[in-house]
Amino acid sequence: MKRLLYTVAALLVCVSASAQASFLQKTFPKTPTKVQLQKENESLRASLDSLQALLDKLSERREYEEDIEAVFRGNEDESNPEQYSQEVIDSLLQQWYENAYANSTDVDYDMDSVKFSSNVSDEEMMRRLAAMNSFISLPFNETVKNYMVLYSEKMPSKMARVIGLSYYYFPIFEETLNKYNLPVELKYMSVIESMLNIRATSRAGARGMWQFMYNTGRNYGLEINSFVDERLDVEKAVDAAARYLADAYSIFGDWALAISSYNCGAGNVSKAIRRAGGARDFWSIYPFLPRETRGYMPAFVGAMYAMTYYREYGIQPMNVGMPAQTDTIEIHRNLHFQQINQVVGVPVEDLRNLNPQYTHDIIPGNTKTYILNLPFTWTSAFLEADQDSLYKFKADSLMSEKVIKDVKNSSTEQRIAYRVKNGDYLGRIAAKYGVSVNQIKSWNHLRSNNIRIGQILYIYKGGSAPKSTDTSSAKSSSSASGTSAKTATGSNGEKIYTVRSGDTLYAIAKNFPGVSADDIKNANHLGSSSIRPGQKLIIPQK
Fold first, then answer.
1. Secondary structure, 3-state, 153-219
2. pTM summary value
3. pLDDT attached to residue 60
4. CB 196 within 8 A of CB 186
5. Which secondary-structure segment (H or E) carries 262?
């Protein structure tokens, strides 16, 4: 540096004063003034703001195009954020597999790799499909054939039960679909969704025969609160599903695409159409759909085929014990199923099967009028019972202030599965959903604030998570105190167990002598062995 300065000084001696001044100005420019720096900063800031505005606009455009399905799935950020995750995806087809095969003698299959053969020729299968004269196109190929064989030949016991249930539920579905001028064949979607299990629940929180997520159900007018979950109401859920499908058809103009969108969301179908160069038929976009959705339409064809030709395959419909006729009665006061059972005599199981929407066996008639479904054979006995005696029977214990308060404080499953995006951090996500960073960390068992792109975070809007996951301190105290901290006494004296992370039905059953995993399943009307943290299970008394 010194050598450089000496050289410059020597040069200055040899040149004129004006030349010296010009040289120094170019070589050692003046330090900018504070005003100049401020102006330069303002100019840079304006440029950055302009670029950020453009970036935000492009980002909004991208999210709009890729997440149209938010209209359907009801998720404010990503209607199907788990679309490519096998573990947590809201895949209704995957839920169907769980319901269909759990604890069954029927065999599970990997439908992506298996290739079934059948004694029925391809020509005969094609003839039968054509003879069904469906309003919805029913193509035949190797993929569809696999599902036709699956439903008709590979799980006879499950299909026998489904067909038996269909005698009761399908007339309800057909009436609703006709009301909206929709193809009655859409009723077979309920088989794919839930195998007609009224309490089917997916890992992502979709519930009922038609597998509505919380926000989607609310968007389509279903009441969901601590007392009532109309996703489980057979008539109201199919009505919402019919309106959903009508909306999807208005977007795509093709029933195969509308049906597929029910599984993965309209955004994923729209994305597949773009990737297929604008083609708008199922088999053209097939390679571009999420893996689970590719099997959805073929499964629909397979279920429809099997339920049309089950006699040819020797399947005998199971007697499922559903009543031939039912009556509806308006309820204007709080009423407990145990009151109806003990005063009128209606079996509690019948009340639960016909009224699954009342999730705590309580009809909250004090708030507004609700409907009670009864087997026709019990209608007269109910109407002839002294109404004051009915509503007052054990009301102090069955519906005490504490019982009502506990029900109101229970979770309404406003869970969102959020996929972390580039630029996300916990504070930003927490602010978006109105929760705290500590809540997100507790719900997802995070030890630090570090998150990664693509990671799934479970968020309970408004902070209404199950009590077992509300805070880390609650979790630690529960762990310290053992099984007793996880078990409470219900309003009817039964034991109520709160599921924790890592629990299985078998592990829970071991804590209660004489109780098996199947006993717990039956007591809670579970369609599969899947349970989730925070879920409350009745432990049957032995």
1. HCCHHHHHHHHHHHHHHHHHHHHHHHHCCCCHHHHHHHHHHHCCCCCCECCCCCECCCCECHHHHHH
2. 0.63
3. 44
4. no
5. helix 255-264
